[in-house]
Amino acid sequence: MFKIKAISLIVLTTFIFSACELENPFAKEEETPIETVKTEKIARFIEKNIDKEDTFTLGEDKAEIIFTSTGTASASNTAHVIPQTSGEITEMKVEIGDSVNENTPLFTLGNSLSTTINAIQYQSALDSLNIAQQSQNLTAISAETTINAAQIGLAMTRDVYQNTLTTKINAKRIFEEQLKSVDLALETAEDNYEDVRDAYNDAKDALEDAEDSGITEAIIAAEARLEGAKMAKDNARFGAEQAENSIGQIEENYYAQVDQLDFAIESAYTQEKSAETQLIAAQNATTQQELGAINQVLQAEMAAQIARVNADINTVKAPISGIVTEILVKEGNFVNPGQAVIKISQTDTLLIKTQINQSEARLITVGSEVELENDNGTTTGLITSINPTLNQMTKKVELEIETGANSKIVSGDFLRVNFSPKIRKQIFIPLNSIFIKEGKKFVRVITSKNEIDHKEITVADIMGEFAKIQSGLDGDETIVKASTTFLDEGDKVKIASK
Question: Does 37 lie in the same domain as 179?
Fold first, then answer.
């Protein structure tokens, strides 16, 4: 029998991870870390046992790429409170550690020429605004009175105009009624005259007959009858003439009245139009007055707002919400514009700035999660910014990480940042599975026939304990890792479970 020395191998199935293209190839091929131990020559037809637990199976095992950097936690946003005017701090309203909201009063300035002038100007502006508002109210009252008077005048002239129109209509109606009555009386008088005239003619004929008869009594009676008929005829004619005269008088009176009414209507119409013009003029004038008063109030309000802003700078307020982390002066100190008095930090979110190698930066993206570690423990953070250019001093990529406030990390803590990127669509293999032969890089691949095959590879970059493969592997191979003996091409191996 042949003497066989057991060989323990560690194998790894290469697989595809996602990553950006890296730019750190082997600086020196001869320095690739390879574990090699001389072993006895083994016949190629003898299988060499490999434990299952020392293999790496695609889809079941993962090669974790981890790299680390350091950084210091700081508040995500910090504001230095600076007064805009000079003065003595007459009241400090906050202490270190106080939580404040935006626009919370922090301290008050006074006892200086600037603060006194601001206060006087503000009070003067308020007084001017009060006067302008009172003037506006009086202008509004006056305008309302003027317009009301013009409206009353217009209403009165319209009433006069309508009344004159109505009077003319009534006069025409009365004239027509009178004319109708007189026409009827004239017609009656004329009919009566004709009847009396006929009676007169009959009496005249009767007298002639009496005279022809020669009877004295008949002649006397006929003469009396004729005299009576004559008087009746004269009276009837007089009545008819009076009726005719009445018609002329009525017409004359009516047309005279119509002339007067037409003049009155024209005068009333002119007065109505004049009243309308006066109303429009009053409305325009009062509108101009009201606009002037409004403009004065607006100017006074603007001046008051400016003065209030100037006065408000005597009370300095928080520009942001946060925690008072520093108070640089004491109550009673005199400060000037531009001098920092208080520091406010927003500690609900902490910011960590760090730098990593360019090849490492290609494996991460904004939004990737990282582990933050210090003596108090670990927590997580998110990458919020990756600078697209290298730092000219360090030749590294700067990035920013944010994490919520918690009990493990406070502003100022020194942290270790651990990156564990998720790799896809790139082939990474353990660095110690590579060996060099005749100046070229190879890995030992276990074929489908359980034989060793030396495959030449090209390394694109090194990432921690792993190497990114540019070419030579398909991504579904099983390779030997950290070999303690030489395995020649064609050697048979067997992966055995313990």
Answer: no
